[in-house]
Design brief:
globular, two-stranded antiparallel sheet, 11 helices, Rossmann fold, five-stranded parallel sheet, alpha/beta
Length: about 270
């Protein structure tokens, strides 16, 4: 066995260290130290907050909505019911990703308390293109009904937030919160009694038609195919990969624990 002097060994180790780039030190301010079910939304939150693609999809949706509304206005006959647009609020006109981001940073899961602490701040930003579209509708005397599943006690802060963002017709007549049910159909029907609803805008299929309400994933997919001609014409949908009924549709009609939902999500993956 060949023997080497200590000086030769030290010199060899020095050369080896010089040939390898130093690994950068990565730090973050998050208090999260382990993976939880909330961390599933990490990429979705980052995508909504930072990607140009998300902003482009929003602009695209509202540009399409404007073209469709212009066409409707040209074809509208006088003497009929006043025209109306029905829209959702959260992730349809207001961006609530900071609330979800804060939960991730605090290593906490969603609670009604944390949600209402966020909405009470009345600081959600409008989605790209949203304010300009609704101001256009307002300028053409189209009534706008903001139908949300926020609670009644969030009404004042919600209106304050919407006014600050520049949304027209933000008042107690046009902003309609949740009552006893999260099903929006009764509230849409109430609007339809006095107005002709020409467009519905939302990030959740339940924002468009009762047939989508509380259906499982396969049923929702089939209903989308059945209604395909309405998307981009009467139904304008906004992207939301963070949360929504698309998630619970994976296990509906069951009620599941977090551990069970985790298992169902993994079993739903379709590989090759």
């Amino acid at each position: 066995m060949r023997k080497y002097s200590l000086s030769v060994i030290i010199f060899a180790l020095f050369l080896a260290s010089c040939s390898r780039p130093a690994m950068p030190l990565i730090t973050h301010k998050s208090t999260s130290r382990s993976i939880t079910t909330l961390d599933y939304s990490l990429n979705a939150v980052l995508w909504q907050q930072h990607s140009g693609e998300y902003k482009a999809l929003c602009f695209q949706a509202f540009s399409l909505a404007r073209m469709q509304l212009q066409d409707t206005l040209l074809k509208s006959q006088s003497g009929s019911k006043p025209l109306a647009i029905v829209t959702d609020i959260d992730e349809s006109i207001l961006d609530n990703s900071p609330q979800q981001a804060q939960d991730i940073l605090n290593h906490t899961t969603y609670t009604e308390k944390s949600w209402k602490a966020w909405t009470a701040k009345a600081s959600a930003k409008p989605l790209p293109g949203a304010v300009a579209f609704f101001q256009f509708a307002d300028q053409h005397n189209v009534q706008i009904f903001y139908i949300s599943n926020r609670s009644q006690d969030e009404l004042e802060a919600t209106i304050t937030n919407m006014k600050a963002a520049g949304f027209p017709q933000a008042d107690t007549k046009h902003v309609i919160m949740k009552g006893e049910s999260s099903d929006k159909e009764p509230r849409r029907l109430a609007v339809a009694e006095t107005h002709r609803i020409v467009m519905l805008i939302g990030d959740n299929l339940n924002d468009f038609d009762k047939s989508f309400y509380q259906q499982n994933a396969a049923q929702r997919a089939q209903l989308v195919a059945d209604h395909q001609t309405l998307f981009g014409t009467k139904f304008i949908i906004l992207p939301n990969a963070i949360y929504g009924d698309w998630e619970s549709a994976l296990w509906r009609p069951q009620t599941v624990t977090p551990a069970e939902s985790d298992a169902i999500k993994h079993s739903a993956l379709q590989g090759f």
